[in-house]
Design brief:
289 residues, Arc Repressor Mutant, subunit A, two-stranded antiparallel ribbon, transcription cis-regulatory region binding, WH-like_DNA-bd_sf, DNA-binding transcriptional regulator, LysR family, transcription regulation, WH_DNA-bd_sf
Length: 289
Amino acid sequence: MKLSINQMRAVEAVVRTGSFSAAAKELGISQPSVSNHLSALEKHYRTQLIHRNGRQAEATETCREILSRIRSVLAMTDEIEHALEGRRRMQAGSLRLGYSTYQFAMPILSDFMTQFPEVEIEARAMASNDLLPLLEDGKFDVVFITSDEAPSSLYVEKIRTERIVLVVPPDHPLCGKGSASWQDVANAALVQRENSSGTRRVFEKAATSAGVKLNTVLALGSWGAIVTTINSGMGIGVAMEGEVLPSNNLVIIPIEDETLSVSHYLACLPEMQHVSAIRAMFNALQDNE
């Protein structure tokens, strides 16, 4: 028996959706057909690929070891099918994209959409450390993430490095100082992103190294909410310098710590870097530099 594309599609869909019925619905085949694909593989190779627990299905360790390669083969197979239909040259298709900071992602995405207007884009905003598991699980094709260093398990290109700064209203007392010490930070009521934010994790790690206990009074899920909260006088914001736009009507206050910076990256799984839509997104990054 030779491993078939349909069997690989069945394995990938069952793992991603978590059930045989959901996989069958997505693939447009019957649930028994999905079960037969999996059973044939497991019987032939004498190994279990899926744990079956009632209606739930989970990948075994063996399945997890080969899953990324299956997804790579399926992505390449999709490209071949598109080529046979005359659609390979980015005249159709889709790209699932996650981003943590729209100020950095949108100029690159705009260039991509200008070059390939027929490609359907699905973009979702999330904190960096929420994006990474979804990329590993195949829910995103590429992600824009913030981190102190490039994740070694991914194919990445750096977009930029930014200082982490305080952000205050124009009438705040810190505006007269021009910069803030770690003691100023310790005395402030801080407004930050959620715990899974890359910027927040780097900032809090630096504060710990400086021996500073932070007083975070609000954790918010979007930059717009942080801007509104700061302008309402509810606290001092923590952000990457490049996030702050003139329209926000806020003042950037550098922190007196030369090591306090974070980088922004475009990332994908290594085995997916040559898929045409993903490669085109990385090219758009280079064009935007």
